[in-house]
Design brief:
The complex is a heterotrimer.
Chain A: E1 25-26, E2 47-51, E3 57-60, H1 61-65, E4 70-77, E5 82-93, H2 94-99, E6 107-112, E7 117-121, E8 131-136, E9 139-140, E10 150-152, E11 165-171
Parallel strand pairs in A: 1-5, 2-11
Antiparallel strand pairs in A: 2-3, 4-5, 5-8, 6-7, 6-11, 8-9, 8-10
Chain B: E1 6-8, H1 13-20, E2 28-31, E3 37-39, E4 44-46, E5 52-55, E6 62-68, E7 73-76, E8 80-84
Antiparallel strand pairs in B: 1-4, 2-3, 2-8, 4-5, 5-6, 6-7
Chain C: E1 13-24, E2 27-34, E3 45-51, E4 57-63, E5 73-77, H1 85-91, E6 97-104, E7 117-122, H2 126-135, E8 142-148, H3 157-163, E9 168-174, H4 191-197, E10 206-212, H5 213-225, E11 233-238
Parallel strand pairs in C: 7-8, 7-10, 8-9, 10-11
Antiparallel strand pairs in C: 1-2, 1-6, 2-5, 3-4, 3-6
Chain lengths: ~200, ~90, ~240
């Protein structure tokens, strides 16, 4: 039985239960999580690449900006137990990007500046479920939050929404990414509390 | 470039002591990627990600990843070529 | 397995608050009594674990401020977005209990061998350095270069004033605001300041630098530029978040 500390409640607030998954608490700020130095890739060197299709596809920053974009308002849930409601993003739907590539893959592995990777089944990133976001709250996405562009897959834990994303490799198999290969769940559905291997 | 999220290996002293039962910040490691030898306390450490990431201060390669679940810990030490621990006096 | 309490293994101990000292408006020292505490070396830290009534726990590390052999003391700076530090600075009072484990660390640790010691601290990075000053022998020369935002933010100010003299030399820099007639430094730490304060590297002082990542990087780079061997500079960085 751990020692109770009188008067300690933690910095938690509960929020509406239909929007806060089990084990999560609400935050108002936007915590920054990083596993390495923040990359600062100049926009004129930035490209977004999809490998593994019939032909490799690649966009420069300007070409990427010219793709049809959407505004997304969504709740996000970090596996470190914070959730943030009604975040507003702008970016390109993965439906748009994958529609421009001829492929029959079932999975993707996203790769990023800094070496981070994360894996996703295509059924979890299509039909309006995932974007490459480059604006947050009406402004260009800050480097510390993943700018110039990050994945946004809000229905899964936020480690799937890889910062500084630079492309995908389309694959037939689900290859575990940076965290998924060392303890974190292969899918990461917050409503099922899929935090760790075996959850 | 300011990078205030980066800490150093002193910050994982408690976790290492808990997991290995020995003081590890004075251990000497060799990076598998670049071959640089360094003391664990001088490595680069990022602790506010979903897990803890330890990087080589020379080439920035990931040396160690530590993920702590409620009843388990996952350790990936594959970035090290070796770790030299001193025996207690 | 029973009976495998390996030497050095960490176990949580119950610590009781036996006293508190308000060091600055944002910083407080807590005196602790923990049955079974094995003692510590100057420079080490400990982990604190708080548990709410519903079982929620939060854990943070704090440097030990007291000298080995003195009653255990930690000094905590309140981080405004923090979870543990506001509790320890504003809420905890005599008789309250939480858990601690330690001591932790073997690198940022000082053993007094009589050689001169150069200490460089930024903000609450002075805490482990204070443990070293408090434990130093009457003949060990010490220089402390200590950066604070304002005079009001200087932790241990009275004690440092009282200790300052021929053997313990204290150099303050105030980076944000200086009182009228301030004779100390009035800028962020830089190579020139280090050159003026540090012993020549040929005297081979022990060097300990503690503060934020940016502070420690600047100090360590500056000392290397002065000819200090990189490996002779012991550094400890703490984060601006988490608290």
């Amino acid at each position: 039985m751990p020692q109770i500390s009188r008067g300690f409640h933690g910095r938690r607030s509960e929020g509406p239960s239909d929007r806060i998954p089990p084990g999560q608490h609400l935050v108002d700020d936007f915590p920054v999580l990083s596993a390495g130095p923040t990359p600062h890739t100049p926009l004129d060197e930035w490209t977004f690449t999809i490998q593994g299709g019939a032909e490799p596809a690649s966009w420069t920053w300007d070409e990427f900006q010219a793709l049809p974009s959407e505004e997304i308002t969504t709740d996000i849930h970090c596996v470190t137990k914070w959730s943030k409601l009604d975040t507003v993003w702008k970016g390109v739907s993965l439906d748009t990007l994958l529609g421009l590539v001829d492929h029959d893959a079932g999975y993707l592995l996203a790769f990023c500046d800094g070496g981070y990777t994360t894996n996703l089944p295509l059924e979890h990133v299509t039909d309006g479920k995932a974007w490459i976001a480059y604006d947050y709250d009406g402004e260009a996405l800050e480097p510390e939050h993943g700018g110039p562009a990050r994945l946004l897959v809000p229905h899964l834990y936020f480690w799937k929404s890889a910062k500084w994303v630079r492309g995908f490799r389309l694959q037939d198999e689900d290859e575990p990414g940076f965290w998924e290969s060392n303890g974190y769940h292969i899918l990461g559905d917050p409503w099922l509390e899929q935090r760790y291997w075996g959850d | 470039m300011a990078d205030d999220r980066r800490l150093d290996g002193n910050a994982i002293g408690g976790m290492m002591l808990e997991l290995f039962g020995v003081e590890m910040t004075t251990a000497t490691e060799v990076c598998r990627t670049c071959g640089t030898a360094d003391v664990v306390a001088r490595l680069e450490v990022y602790m506010d990600a979903p897990g803890t990431v330890v990087r080589c201060a020379h080439c920035k390669a990931v040396l160690m990843r530590i993920v702590r679940g409620p009843d388990r810990t996952w350790l990936d030490l594959s970035g090290f070529r070796s770790i030299e621990l001193r025996s207690p006096d | 397995m029973a009976g495998t309490a390996v030497l050095g293994r960490l176990t949580w101990l119950v610590a009781q608050v036996t006293g508190a000292v308000d060091e600055t408006p944002r910083v407080r020292t807590l005196l602790l009594e923990a049955d079974g505490w094995p003692g510590h070396r100057a420079g080490q830290h400990l982990d604190v674990r708080l548990t709410a009534e519903d079982g929620y726990q939060a854990e943070r590390s704090y440097s030990i401020a007291s000298a080995p052999g003195e009653p255990l003391a930690i000094t905590i700076e309140r981080l405004e977005d923090g979870e543990v530090s506001p509790y320890l600075v504003d809420e905890a009072r005599d008789g309250d209990t939480f858990e601690v484990r330690g001591p932790i660390g073997g690198y940022f640790v000082w053993e007094d061998d009589g050689r001169p010691v150069f200490l460089v601290g930024g903000g609450s990075g002075v805490v482990p350095l204070m443990s070293m000053i408090r434990s130093s022998s009457e003949s060990t020369p010490i220089r402390l270069l200590y950066s604070s935002r304002t005079l009001e933010d200087v932790i241990y100010r009275q004690e440092l004033d009282a200790r300052a003299g021929d053997r313990v030399e204290v150099f303050h820099t105030l980076t944000r605001e200086q009182p009228p007639g301030w004779a100390g430094y009035a800028r962020r730490i830089d190579a020139e300041m280090l050159r003026e304060v540090a012993w020549p590297s040929a005297e081979q002082p022990h060097v300990f630098v503690c503060g934020s990542t940016r502070f420690v990087d600047v100090a360590a780079d500056g000392l290397v530029a002065l000819g200090y061997e990189p490996l002779s500079i012991r550094t400890e960085r703490f984060g601006a978040t988490g608290g």
